[in-house]
Amino acid sequence: KLLETAVQKKALNARQVCDALLYSEYLKYDKPDFWLAAFGVVRRIIGTIDYKGKVNITLKYFPRFKQLIN
Asked: Exposure of 10 by Cβ count < 10 A (0-12 exposed, 13-18 middle, 19+ buried)?
């Protein structure tokens, strides 16, 4: 909730928050609580990112998502 509030008040950049969460060392398949919380935050704040930023995030993280699944 703190990250979401900071993004809404423009104290933090939404894209940087998404980057930090999706590249976190804690985002591993054996940590389901962090997994759910991180993707919940990303889902709620991604609307504040422009289209190009969303595309860049998607392209940047597909290899990461595959890595997490395997």
From this structure: exposed
Helix (H) or strand (E) holding 31: none
Sign of the C-alpha dihedral computed for residues 20, 17, 28 and 63 taken in this order: negative
Residue found by looking up tokens 């940087």 in the block: 16
Global confidence as pTM: 0.75
**Which residue in 17, 16, 15 sits closest to 1, CA to CA?**
17
**pLDDT in 10s for each residue of the chain, 70 residues:** 788 999 999 999 999 999 898 888 888 778 889 888 988 998 899 888 889 888 888 887 777 777 766 6
